[in-house]
Amino acid sequence: MARIMVIDDDETVRDVLNSFLVEKGHEVVTYGSGEEGLEVLLTERFDAALIDLVMPGKGGLEILKELSSRKIRLPLIIITA
Rounded to an integer, what distance in angstroms lies between the CA atom of residue 62 and that of residue 39? Predict the structure, then answer.
């Protein structure tokens, strides 16, 4: 079982991904903004993250750059509609 974060400003996308991943046996944490998700990614351990490319505020690329600059290694999947 993996601990996975989902960051997407679309509640429906978050809910669908959450349901799918939980059904597969994973622990899932979801956030509706890049800022909220990034704050948690900087302080807690996750096995992977699915992050929306385009969101108000920080999007997927900004989060990727921030994690990279802090040398935080984490498998990221950038998603977009």
Answer: 13
